[in-house]
Amino acid sequence: MIRLVRLIMIMVTVGLIATAAEAAQWDAKHYHGSMCQSENDEDDLYRWYTEGTRINESYANLICPIVRDNTTNKDGVLVRVTVESEKGGWCSLHALSWPNPTSSVLSAWGAWAGSGIRVIELRLTNSFRHGHYALWCTIEEGDRVISYWVAEKLPTNNDN
Amino acid sequence: MMCAHLRFALNGVCAVMLGIPMIFLAGCSTLAKTPQAEISEGDWPPGRQQEIMAAQREIDEYAKATNTVFQAEALDQEWSTQAINEIQQAFKSREAAGTSIVDIQCRSARCRIVLKGDPVRIGKVLHRSSPKLSEMFSQSLMTRMDGEEDGISTVIYLVRQGYSLP
After folding, report:
1. How far apart are CA A104 and CA A98, in angstroms?
2. CATH superfamily of B75-160
3. Which residues pair with B155 in a beta bridge?
């Protein structure tokens, strides 16, 4: 019985260490939804500190900037977008090549349906050295991007 | 290397300033060391010609590796037919005007589509199709192919949910 308890304690400890190691491999940043800009300058957008970016058009395409801190990794990025919606919408995440951003583009997609607050996860498992990331969301009238969370693989120090 | 030379030169200037208090010498030495701590010779800043060429080589090699993985795949007839149908539907939309599918093949985990037309418009079609694409596919690679006879084409590799790019 004592051996069994010891074994369980060892397994729990190993599990906790593995989880901590996994978490330590990521550097996360959380951006306010008001950073998202419309593709079209004439779109009617409303920004507020509690709201993020809400749109007063039938729909709008929003570009949400991502600061890439690890500029040389080739194993991608993880993004979670928090939205509030009446009907639904979608986002796509892109890793673009450098120096020509349209030479090669890696993409992942996420969509939601129905009303309420949702968190949409987009994961790219690859990226290009020195290229930038872009988040592109299409939302409908009255809907909003509240915030978006970006996790990069470490290291993200100022050397890369 | 530049920083090392700069530091050597500054230290040299400090050393020949005879009669100056030692505290000033220490200050010069600290000033000369600062840049080396912030800038490394490795990856930053990008922009040198060899870095541009190395980045382009990596992109080309990655596209080749993706194609090699696709060509080696077995065929899953049921999934392939369904995937081809979804892709064709996406490129029948209004946003796809001016683009055309030259070739489309789906195997068991990936599809390869060759397209003609404005790559910006092709990108918009993929974004507009996000709700459908996200059900069937996890990721994509869109790249350019320079054909000898038919000019520049866009090649897209779409990866089935549960699989990844190489």
Report:
1. 9
2. General secretion pathway protein M, EpsM (3.30.1360.100)
3. B114, B143
**C-beta atoms of B55 and A104 within 8 A:** no
Task: Report H helices in B45-128.
Answer: 49-71, 77-90, 119-128
pTM of the model: 0.78
Topology of domain A27-153, CATH: Jelly Rolls (2.60.120)
A82: helix, strand or coil? strand
The phi and psi torsions of A152 (rounded to 5 degrees) equal -110, 155
Distance from CA of B141 to the nearest CA of A (A): 5
Whole-angstrom distance, CA of residue B158 vs CA of residue B155: 10
- Per-residue pLDDT tens over the stretch A41-57: 888 888 888 788 888 88
- To test the contact with chain B by mutation, choose from A130, A132, A135 the residue with the greatest count of B C-beta atoms within 10 A, namely A130
Q: Tell whether B36 is within 8 A of chain A (Cβ).
A: no
